[in-house]
Fold this sequence. Notes:
The structure holds two protein chains of two kinds. By secondary structure, chain A is an all-alpha fold. In chain A, 71% of the residues lie in helices and 0% in strands. Chain B contains twelve helices and 26 strands.
Amino acid sequence: VRLAAKLRLGEAVAERPRGILYRVWTRGDGVNEEATFFSLARDALSLFVILLGSGASGVAAAGALVRDRTQSGLILAIGLIVGVAFFGWVFSQVLIYFPGLNPGFYAAFATVYGVAGLAAGLFFARGVIGETFRTIGKRWSDRLGLSIISLVFWVPVVLLLGALAIINLAVPLYGNDSLEYAQAARKVFEMRDLGAYPFMDRNVTGGLITPWTHPPGYLGLLALGDFVQGSANEARVIKLVAAAFVGLQVILVVAIAGRGRVLAGALAGLLLLIAPLYYAQAAESSIDAYRIATFSAAIASFWLMAKSPSLGASILAGVVAGLAAYSHSIGMLTLGFAIPLFVLIARGAPARSALAVLIAVAVSLVFVVPHVMKNLSVFGSVLQDNVEVWTYPELQIDERLAVERGISTFTDALMNGVLRAFTQTEFFGFQLLLLLAGLVAAAWGRLTPSSIRRYATSPDLRSRPLSVSLIVLAGFLLFLILTWMAGSELAIKNARYMLTVQPFIAIALAIVLVGRLDRDRSAVQ
Amino acid sequence: VSEEADDRVIRIASAATAPTEGEGGAGVRGWLGLLAALVLVAAGFMSQARFVVQQIGLFPPLGAASEKEFDRLALTGWPTISIIANIKNVVPKDELTLVFRQADFAFYAERPYIFYLDPTIAAIYRLGSAEEIWAALRKLGVRWILVPAYGLSEINETKFVDLLTDPEIAPLIVANGGYRLFQLNDQRTPSTPRVIAQGQFGAASPDSTGWTVASYSNNRRAEVAIAEQQRSDADISFRTTWPAPFNRNHTIYLSQGTLKPEAPMNVVAESDLPVVEGPVRLSMDLEGKGNIELRIVTGRDKNADEIRAIWAGALLGESRTVKGLYLDQGFPTQGLDAPTRRHRIQLVLKGPGQVRVKSWKAEFLQPATPPWRGDDRWLLSESGWSVGGAVPPPPKGQLALTRLSGEVVQLRQDLLEDIWAESAWVGQPGLYQGGGTAQQGMDRAGQFLPVSAWADVELGGSGAAALGVRAVCPDGRRLYADLGAVALEAKHSRVYREAVLDCVPVLLRLVVTAKRDVFHDTARPRRSRVEIGPVKLGMWIRWSDRDGRHFTYEPFGSIMVDSLLSQLAEPAPGDENASSEPGKAGIAGATTPTTSSSPKPPDR
């Protein structure tokens, strides 16, 4: 309370950024420096090194858990996302269980974690990284013509990623959700305490109320940015977290679609970046890039677990699923998609598979149970936002919101809600429509009983990248339909939820479009 | 496992159009797939590139380092941000605001607030009257209320809607688009409601003429008939006819006058709302289903009307009166070319639905006190100039209007909002000086209308300014005549402008408005700073000789404004006799205009 009182508004702290890792862990606390392009770039670079270091440590850990070197590309991509997301979890745990310490402690912790992670990660992950680049190099030299053509896709990918980073640095925060998150992170930074989240007491926060059930993973990462720049007065480098996850997401998409292929990976990465809503949300520094990256990494890790089952793979899948659940409320449903997928693609004895899933579920619970308990105690529910006013029947809030969102009638809810990825081309582009057309064309005349039987009896066929993507996509659409039929608008009310499977749309479409040309007859996986 | 099997699944997906079968066509289909991919990504990349260019154009990356983030945002003029900028200007740092939108206020406003979903205030939504909510909020220490442009059942379905249309206890202070800031008074300040316009729809009512129903799709006039309208004896109704999702981006407007682009707002429509000065409560009786918005559209300039949502929300088929407040500045924040300010009512149906509109009413709630606290509506500066704007000036601290030297005052825009400085009123004695006696001048002017007001001003600074004269007619009418816009340079130069007036005014004052500067960079408007040097104001009459073929211009009078300032008392605007307290004016030959000697205003 004393701390809260000290942090009341009006006692505006420094007006200007303090910079370099909070003035080397705040021995220079309160020393403001001139804001220059150099200081902004330097803080951005500091954050980048910390994120890279945590990513590298993630790759090393993933490589140690899954020793199958034929999967090194996938391990690398999953490991990067896991590493960064895991650091977000660790940092938020530190802010929950060690609150109120000298701000230098948190900056120092982040620095040490990042630098040590970078050094150790690069050393221990050298096998995975080396193998990945060897594979890529070999594939490129084997198919030089296609590799050169793939530059047509690679160049825009690099340009769009670079532009995104510039936008995130140059454009101040203006999105509703981004601003609320940034304000919550500012409170975490000022109080040096994440234990007070979700914020429900305006006397502590100066007004901020966060009636969400979302776990605090993103807050941890944003607060990290605040500690790096030593000030929460402006958003500045915390906006880069979104761009970082878009970059990691592209790597994952390339790793999945580009297995044994040259063109499809690059194309899938580009297709993801040209999905209008996905890119625009990242440009607004919203949470979506982070939660989607952890979701798709969780799917990929269950896929990996099916391909090379081991105790390590199960643990890795559990960690990623837990981190996905720690990123956002919708991430709590990750296992609901990942486990059915695993059942469809797993080889080997059912008992072993069941054990693998059990281990993964048990591990993932470590990450979410504390927050679930907290939600239950604060809101009395796990997932549903709970606001008292919204329960007043005379306000007819749900009915009127449904009209405002254009999902009030059956057809409206179907077309604007469930099937919005098809109909709202201004948000999703024409990718899903094109994918549908491509699949229909592919199946035309070839969907024979024997081909269906082959697909039904072969987990190997089902675990191809195209098939996995389609299963996830179909599963998500099924989820939308089921929740809608159960009378809930929770899943269809917001276009951003559909973005969850946008990476898999990109992967499937890329393979459908160029997979045939790209096929590597010699590749054995 | 070979890739062969995967290949079967996707065999012709890559080339839906290729009819060839077997291995021979494989290569062709593969390349067709690549071609399709290239077309798709080329189109997608172009659209993303446009997005990137637009973002970076708005926010040049180099500025990110040195300028404050909020300042850069405020330059965009986005309503969500402009309202916060205005709040930072108006709301003292320690006063509590109830916010119906948290994000921007929380991060940028640097003021304490109560979020409308705060569980501790939930009971407030069940209070039975506006007065009770008012009392409860004041008890909590709430002084201000921020309301967003979109509909909220927490307002529309509770007594908040009454509170926010009662300027006696909750006056509207600033509006940016539909984002509005209200202030809670300590006690009720009485006002006198006066209906300034109302109408009944339907074939039988002449009021329903002059209204247009138009439908748009994706901001383009809809070519196809996906909406229909009907006028009955007692109402007018319209609805979308196509099924979802084809009408998702479809909008139907019921508008006074006509809609852009058919007719820009600088064309007068029969049905335009009268201009007053102060809060106006607009209400409309309707029933329907769908997403609706009631708006006031105000002519701002040739390219941009100011659109303010005053009620937004969802109808579920019920019949109700929707109502909201708008603040009429009473003064033409004329654009760079638009001659006058006007308001039109628009009712908008967004997406699917149907609406039946019966009648509407606009009430002017003449305030007994200025719409914001104290008397800082006009910040008087030492030189006799006063300043005003769509945005109230900061409660304390820096002045928008400062004196640079004995002769020059400076008017500075803090935001991208128009802000204007007005000279003191100049009365007839001054205006008719040099053209014989005032009475002679008046008589002659009565014979030879029209009269032109002119201004000769020394201007400098940076950005853009607009000039105008404001006049009070003998019958109490108040006029504004636009004298056009000026691109400012650091070096001062004299600007001469004139405009025809509707009457022979008894009072005249010069108005210099600092506009957002679109002269120098149309993509990125900047704030303007106007340095106003010595001013001459006067009038011309134009008369012809007997055969009506030769015209002569005769100076009617001119005056150095500054020389008058110390001598003329500030009259209450609109008061006919205000200028004419002999002795006080201290100018020889001052006469009191009387009704009998004043010419009747011409009937145009």
